[in-house]
Every structure is written in structure tokens, then in C-alpha cells.
Write a structure and sequence with these properties.
Blueprint (H helix, E strand, L loop, with lengths): L32 H12 L4 H16 L11 H28 L26 H29 L12 H26 L2 H12 L14 H7 L13 H12 L1 H5 L5 E4 L2 E5 L3 H9 L11 H4 L8 H11 L1
Helix pairs in contact: 2-8, 3-4, 4-8, 5-8
Length: 325
């Protein structure tokens, strides 16, 4: 029998047809300008979760709840409104994904990575139930802490403690910053996530998230509160780089709602045999399966540079095993 570490998810229902996985073609050598343009157009001009979160960020930043003078003080009114908005967004999007995939079983196991059921009667989860456990961590810790970071960022903008880049004064950077946010998040995520795998931190904090081997949408933000605090610290970039509140909201939604969609356990939403929305989380799915790999994402290639990438192939698995030996 072959070494199980060298087999690539051989009991999974699905493997993507684009293996081996590769980093986004931004920071690669030799440069790939044509591929970078194609990748950018595909991810920002097509219907996917990224474009949905950008659109949502723009709507909130310009119309639904723009930064204004009322946010110079930490008044309960606007903060409660903000928290309520994020709770509703989480309920609709995370709950909607869970309903479609696991309650309605809208597409059965079509395009599902791992067909094993989510955990029930498992003592490692609160309430002995994976979904209830994940929901509690998400709604009682994840969303409030994410909202607290947003409150802080808005307060900084409102008091002009940070520089702002808007569409009128710097249109080029205003557009490019939307492309930069996932790259920054990927770099930040690798660094803090790799640190979370230090033995002492893992046992005390990060193990909460890794109780989820076979993941569902509510698993995305199922983390220890300390990890939530660090995970959403990406928003502190406003202190260093001039941004518009729309960029910060996109970054927030990319993490707050994007983590649940990429943990959905599926490649995408399929209706009548057609993929209507990609939520591909295969790269991170491999991390939950094998743990000591894929600490970041494809947007910033630190996993590939530092030898911690599992590219989904037998060769990649062997290379990763050699790296750890």
C-alpha cells in the first residue's frame, strides 16, 4: 500500500481539473504580464464572490453607511447599526450557503470536495455538533470582533488620523487598491497563520479552527477569539497606506464573508448542472486535510517560495514531505 501522505485526497469526491495549483501570476519569475492581466480580468470582471464583495463594499461605503462626521465619536447608534448590518450579512450569506449545500442539498455532492457528513455527536465540538459549534464561534466572537475592527477604521477615517485615497483625487490607485487588498490579505494571513501553528499557540488557540477537518460555510470563522482579533488586524493597513473606506470594507468582507464561502466544502454553486458562482477553496481545503501546508493563499506566493505549498499532486505531496523531513 502506498504512503497515505503521498496520495492526493484519493477518497475525495472531487479534484479540480486545473492541478497542479499555482500562485497568482503577479509575483512570479520570470514575469508573466499577459497571464497577470488575464487573471485580473477573470477575477474582477466576472461573476464570482470577489466581485460580489467589491460591489457590496462600494454600496456600503458610498450609500448605505458612508464615513461621516458622526463617526468621530464612538456613539452607540452608528456602532449598533454597523454590528446589526454585519450580523445580517453573515446570516444571509453564510446561512444561505449552508442552507443551499447542507440543508436543502441543492446540488447533492456535485462539485463537493469531501462527501463525508459534517460532524454530529462529536465531543470535540461544543454541543457535540459541528454546525452549532461553528455558528457560536462565528456569531458570538467572529462577527463582533470583525465589526470592532471596522468601527476602529471608520473612527480613524472620520477623525482624519489616516490618509484617504478617493476616486476623484487618485483614480488610478483607487482602482488598483481593490486588486491589492487580496494580495495584502494573503501575505498577512500566511504570517499570522504560520505563527498560529507554533505548538504552544496551536494548542491554546488555533486548534479550535482545526477541529474542522471536513469544513462547511460556518467553519470559515470558527476560531478562538484571539485568532479573530489577529485575523482581522489586516485593517490596520490604513495606518500605513492611503485607502478609501470602500477598500477597507472590501478587505473586511473578503475575510468576514469570503472565509465562509471558501470553506463551503464545494467548488461552487451549481444550478441545473451549470456552475453559477465559484467559491473555490481547494488550496485551503488541502490545509485542513494535511495541516502542515498551504498556510496562505494563491494571491501571495509565500507557500511556494518557502516550500509549504501542496499543489494537489503526488509530486507536490512528496516534495512537501521532503521539506518537513
Amino acid at each position: 500500500m502506498s504512503d497515505p501522505d503521498r496520495r492526493v485526497a484519493d477518497d475525495w469526491a472531487l479534484q479540480p481539473d486545473y492541478l497542479p495549483t499555482r500562485p497568482a501570476p503577479y509575483l512570479v519569475w520570470p514575469p508573466q504580464p499577459v497571464e497577470a492581466v488575464k487573471y485580473t480580468l477573470k477575477n474582477h470582471l466576472s461573476f464570482n464572490d470577489r466581485t460580489l464583495y467589491i460591489a457590496l463594499a462600494v454600496v456600503v461605503a458610498f450609500w448605505l453607511q458612508p464615513v461621516d462626521s458622526g463617526q468621530t465619536t464612538l456613539a452607540a447608534g452608528w456602532i449598533v447599526w454597523l454590528l446589526a448590518r454585519n450580523v445580517v450579512l453573515a446570516g444571509v450569506i453564510i446561512g444561505g450557503l449552508h442552507w443551499w449545500f447542507y440543508m436543502r442539498c441543492g446540488q447533492g455532492d456535485e462539485r463537493r470536495w469531501d462527501t463525508r457528513p459534517l460532524g454530529r455527536n462529536k465531543r470535540r465540538f461544543a454541543f457535540d455538533d459541528q454546525v452549532k459549534d461553528n455558528m457560536a464561534y462565528t456569531m458570538l466572537s467572529g462577527i463582533p470582533i470583525a465589526s470592532a475592527w471596522e468601527v476602529w477604521a471608520r473612527w480613524m477615517f472620520a477623525n482624519e488620523y489616516v490618509s484617504t485615497a478617493d476616486l476623484g483625487t487618485n483614480p488610478v490607485w483607487f482602482v488598483l487598491a481593490f486588486l491589492a487588498m487580496p494580495i495584502w490579505q494573503s501575505l498577512h494571513f500566511y504570517v499570522i497563520h504560520r505563527a498560529m501553528h507554533h505548538e504552544s499557540i496551536y494548542q491554546a488557540v488555533h486548534a479550535v479552527h482545526h477541529r474542522n477537518v471536513n469544513v462547511g460555510p460556518w467553519s470559515g470563522l470558527s476560531m478562538h477569539p484571539v485568532e479573530h482579533l489577529v485575523y482581522f488586524s489586516t485593517l490596520a493597513i490604513v495606518v500605513v497606506v492611503p485607502l478609501h473606506p470602500a477598500h477597507v470594507l472590501f478587505l473586511l468582507f473578503w475575510q468576514m464573508l469570503g472565509a465562509p464561502s471558501s470553506h463551503s466544502g464545494y467548488e461552487g454553486i451549481v444550478v441545473n448542472g451549470k456552475m453559477v458562482l465559484s467559491v473555490d477553496g481547494y488550496f485551503h481545503q488541502m490545509h485542513h486535510r494535511y495541516v502542515r501546508c498551504n498556510y496562505g493563499s494563491a494571491e501571495f506566493p509565500l507557500d511556494y517560495w518557502l516550500g509549504t505549498a501542496h499543489d494537489g499532486t503526488d509530486t507536490g505531496a512528496a516534495r512537501l514531505k521532503a521539506h518537513h523531513n
